[in-house]
């Protein structure tokens, strides 16, 4: 036997001996019979195993339950959305409704405290209400509002969504608490007269406006709201413009709105050196406009089922009140697809110039816009201007400097002249676009021009269209 082999053999023997000794004397108490002892051990092992399995099973159950809950939540939210879209068909999710109700209450309380906050400078809190439906490009509008907003506590942004369009809701929700999202709950079908079937969109818009303005003024309790649609670009001084004109709107009961829009605001028709110039207008321009609660309280109970913009232009609603509008628009629409007329956009809206120079309106004295000041000054300015014809204006044959006036006496003459000058030529309730006391002010070849009725003008003729 070789030496190494012997050592190996001896080592294995010693190990075996140790193992046997351990088994016989230590692991096994001598006062138990071997079989009995073994059985007890097996029993113990089995119970332990059972216990562990049970634990794992319970863990698994827990996990499974969590998974089930997640799936259920997902299904519920899908169903709630569907119910929203189809007009509340599901009655089984009372708990979810309760949760939503609590969330809503919390939102209302939060917004109410924002609305009632007294800001350090004593200035107003003005909500910005964005109307959205199914255009995911709403982010373009929201991004600009957030970019130019001078202070969030001054201008809380609310995005009101109609149409139950999930992708748009997802885009809006990405902004988290930078903005507040509300959703028009009534998604029921609107019965529309057969002749107006293709204008159904306008009925939905009017319903949405009625609901969202009620919510913002009466539930959130804001006193003043700037209304914006989801397809608007805004100018850098958009907020400054509304903040600066706010005191005038509050002070003058013959004003009912401030609008950021000039209907004749194309390049060439506006004075690009006068971004600070503002007007009064009898024509409601819309497209980014500010409204107070007192006016809304008056309009809300009789709010129409469609064509709300032409409705507010009617004498019964307007009641001889005017809006403030700028020389150079503070909004521009980046594409009307959907309900509005695409043709109108291509032909007209897309040429409206958006202001680029920031005007510090809050530092300016805007009291010239109050009716008593404005009317005297405006009438004087218009009717002291040299009377010219369109041909004279076009041929550059006017020698004197300064503003000029082109008179009109009839609906047809107005329309024909407006067309020649590149102005909007339509009327609403007898009021021409941008008109004040019948006068339309614009720039032509660098010269201020007033297209104006006679000085003894007696008021609008709603028959003009
Ligand atoms: C809005 O509120 C007014 C006044 O409380 C109410 O008459 C009107 O029906 C409401 N409109 C909508 C759409 O809820
Ligand atoms: C603002 O302008 C008006 C004239 O339109 C003037 O009477 C008034 O004194 C001015 N106010 C201030 C504070 O300068």
From TrEMBL:
Primary localization: cytoplasm
Species of provenance: Cryptotermes secundus
Gene Ontology biological process terms, A to Z: protein N-linked glycosylation
Transmembrane segments: 6-26
Keyword match Transmembrane: yes
Segments for region (Disordered): 84-107
GO molecular function term, any single one: alpha-1,3-mannosylglycoprotein 2-beta-N-acetylglucosaminyltransferase activity
Subcellular location: Cytoplasm, Perinuclear region; Golgi apparatus membrane
Cofactor note: The cofactor is mostly bound to the substrate.
Alphabetically ordered keywords of this record: Cytoplasm, Disulfide bond, Glycosyltransferase, Golgi apparatus, Manganese, Membrane, Metal-binding, Signal-anchor, Transferase, Transmembrane, Transmembrane helix
Listed InterPro entries: Glyco_trans_13 (IPR004139), Glycosyltransferase_13 (IPR052261), Nucleotide-diphossugar_trans (IPR029044)
Function: Initiates complex N-linked carbohydrate formation. Essential for the conversion of high-mannose to hybrid and complex N-glycans.
Root EC class: transferase
Protein name: Alpha-1,3-mannosyl-glycoprotein 2-beta-N-acetylglucosaminyltransferase
Gene name tied to this protein: Mgat1_1
Comp. bias regions, Basic and acidic residues: 89-107
